[in-house]
Amino acid sequence: MWNIIAQACELVFRFDVLAVMLAASIYGIVIGAIPGLTAIMAVSLIMPIAIFLDPVPALAAVIACDAMAVFAGDIPGTLIRIPGTPASGAYTDDSYKLTQKGMAETVLGVNCFFSAVGGLVGLAALMTAAPALAEIALNFSTYEYFWLSCLGLTCATFMTSKNTIKGIVSLFLGLFLTTVGFDAITGQPRFTFGITELLGRIHVIPVLIGLFAVPEIMRRVSATKPPDVAYSGKIGHIYKGMFRVWREHIPQFLRGNIVGVVVGALPGAGADIAAWLAYAISRKFSKTPEKFGTGHMEGIIESTSANNSALAAAWIPAFVFGIPGDVTSAMVIGILFIKDLKPGPTVFLEHPEVIYSVFICFAVANVLMLILGYYAIKMFRHILRIPPFVMLPVILIFCIVGAFSINNSLFGVLVMLIFGVMGYIMEENDFPISPMLLAIVLGELLEKNFIISMVKSRGNWLDFFSRPIAGTLGALTILIWIFPLLKKAWKASRARKTA
Q: Which pLDDT does position 437 carry in this prediction?
């Protein structure tokens, strides 16, 4: 084991890898600190560069960029009441109210410190759970992987959708798109319409850029509201008195990290849901729930701990089963496939040095956050002064170059624009795009395991429940499918008894 850790250290502590992490961290902070530009957008724009790097620097860039962007989303939320990322939205009101009371330094220090510590807690969960689960997953057959894929897609649809029907529509649209190109089993071309570029399936990178970056650009271009005025107050030492704050809020700190790890490890959940759920739980168990929303530190600490601890935990299902825990880990799975590092339990046996390199990169990224976050907070006012007519064309150029660079073809740019318009229309009509993206990532795995399982069982559906873990996963998945119907029937029955 120590030999593997030494190899991982050699892979990470190199000038080029550390330089990539530093550049990705600064980039993530800039994008995350600009209101409206999300962490997912930051990662999707860095993907075209990452796929041309070696595996370790590529994964290091994604880890650093994601962690910094999620943290940086707290900065505009605290100073001008506009959350930089959806995860920061849970506690923006409390943060801004405390800023108005002259506590901007303390709130920003809490955001940075508890985000970094939360990230380290998530890393501890990843290091502990992933190898143990990988040993169990080595015994998985196609039945377990089929149900696991179904469970991941189900969680993504039910947990990220306000309207379940719209989430299901998004999911099936993504599954349909994975059928375009050569059939993985028979080699038969499907839905290509004579277009040669579609034979190799729709590449996930232009789709990612289109779904997450282009709609944000379109929204900001069409916005009629002028940008907010930058914060002009003085910001001093943000870490002053941080130990006292931590000591006074140990229960919120522990609970937030537990919620972040548990939610992050669920397929399809991620940091946004973890932050909102942690805030709701904090309010539920608080002795002073009436203070939430008026400038209360409890909800801030619990939520900001949860969103960053969820980031590392989301890599547990991604590494162990090849099932993404959130959108970012879905992109990571794409990188792993491109680098011929098939995610799953065998990666722990075949490439353990890469796994331990990821652990080290998470630790380095969270330490970097404490250092870079300090200076980023002080520079925030300058970042916010960048006018949209300068920033947006630059981002659009990055999008086009990224989509073009995948195959050095304008077809990638066309795919990006089509999915950009599709993503914009879907979000404007409250259709979630996360289920579609996860379906595009998992669709081939789901279809291949389903067909192989049907061949093995000679069409007998009962074989899908014949193994203990497969049966449990199948029963759990079906229970989630029918739970809304059971809940509706129970309410109707209760209403009849009351009447």
A: 75
What's the whole-number mean pLDDT along residues 202-230?
Answer: 73
* Amino acid making up residue 348: F
- Quick one: DSSP state of residue 408? T
pLDDT bin (cut points 50, 70, 90) of residue 197 is confident
More confident residue, 134 or 418: 418
Partners of 181 in beta bridges: 190
Contact 471, 465 (CB under 8 A): yes
Per-residue pLDDT at 276: 73
Is 448 exposed, middle or buried, given 0-12, 13-18 or 19+ CB atoms closer than 10 A?
middle
For residues 77 and 278, the answer to whether their CB atoms sit within 8 Å is no
Please tell me what DSSP assigns to residue 230: P
| Torsion sign across C-alpha atoms 61, 63, 65, 66 | positive
HSE-CB for 306 with a 13 A CA cutoff: 33
Highest average pLDDT, of 36-45, 250-259, 386-395, comes from: 250-259
Residue 218 has which token pair?
């379109």
- How far apart, in whole angstroms, are the C-alpha atoms of residue 73 and residue 50? 22
What span, in angstroms and rounded, lies between the C-alpha atoms of 233 and 317? 43
Residue with tokens 């304008």: 410
